[in-house]
Amino acid sequence: MKRRCRVCMIVPEASVKGGIAAVVNGYRGSSLERKYHIGYVESYRDGTRWQKFGKAVSGYCTFFRRMLMDRPDIVHVHSSFGPSFYRKIPFIYMSCLFGVPVINHIHGAEFDRFYEQASQAKKRLIARVYGKCTRLIVLSEEWKERIAPIVPDTHIDVLENFCLIPKEPYDQGRNRQQVLFMGELGTRKGCYDIPDIWKRVLFKAPSAKLVMAGDGELEAVRKAFEKKGISSGVNFPGWVRQGEKDRLLQESAVFLFPSYNEGMPMVILEAMSYGLGVVTTNVGGIPNLVWSGENGFIRKPGDTEGLAEDVVRLLNDPALCIRTGKKARQTVAKDYDDERHRARLNEIYESVLRETNARESK
Q1: How far apart are CA 312 and CA 57, in angstroms?
Q2: Which of 165, 187, 241, 323 is most solvent-facing, going by the fewest CB within 10 Å?
Q3: What is the pTM of this model?
C-alpha cells in the first residue's frame, strides 16, 4: 500500500479569531486528511503577549521534534504580514535545514505597510525568507501581481478562500431592516466611516437597525457613533462565535463591509453564502467576488455617500435585496465551495512533490 504523503501544517489554535483559523478549521476532518497524513503544529493563540510568546516557543519545539522523528514531505505554513511573518521564520529556516519543501500560504492584507513602505533592510529580509519557500500561496491575482517583484511568479499560486454553504432555509427569520458588519473593529475595516454612512442611511431609512459584531477598538468605534448622535439603534455584541455568527447572518438583510485593505475576506464569502445584500469596497480580492449591481454593490474605500446610497437602496427595495442576495449565494456555491478549494490545494501539493522528486532524482 502506497504511503500517504505527510504534511506538517503550521496553524493557529482552532479557537483563534480571524480568517486563517476559519480556513484551517475547514481542513480538519475533511477529504484533505483522507488523502494526506496531516499533522497540525499550533504556533499562535489569542491572549497576552507572554501567552502568545509561550505558544510560539512550544510550536517551535514541537516542530523540531517532528522534523527529527517523523520528517514530513511538505511543510505548509499559514502566515500573514507583520508579527505573523516573523513568527514563521524559524519554521521556514528549520524546514530548509532538513531539506523539506515549504509552502507559505499568505493571508495578509496590508502589503504596502509591510513591504512597500519598509526599509531596505526589511525588504531584503522579506525577499530572503520568501525566497526560501518552494511556493507562495496568495488569495487573489491582485496579490500575485504585488508579490511577483519579490519572488518569481512561477513560484506563486493563487488559491482563493472558500465557504461552507449553509443549507435551506438559510434566511429564516430575516429582518429586512437589519444591517450587519462583522470583523475586527478598526480603521482598516472602515469602521470609522460607518457612523457617517449610518447617519446618511437613517435619514432615508429611519427604521433600520445596525449590528456591529466584532472586537478590537470597540469603545472608540462606539464613541464615534455617540458623537454623531446615532448610537441608540446600534448593537455591539462583541466577537461572535459560530452559532451566534450564523444567527446574525441568517436574520440580517444587508452586509456592510467598507474595508480599506483585504486579501480574500472569509466574512464576505459567508455573508454571500447566506444570501445577504452585500455593500463593500473594491480592495484585494473583493472585486473577484462582488460584481456591482449583480450580486452586491461595490464602491471605492472612503466613499461614505455611495456606500450609504447602496445600503438604502437594498433596505428600501426588498425585492432587489433578495435578488442580489440569491445571486451572491449562487456565486459562492459555484466558485468558492470547500471541495473546489481543497482540489486546488491538492494540485499544489502534487506539483511541489513532483518538483521535489525530480530534483532529488538528479
Answers
A1: 50
A2: 241
A3: 0.89
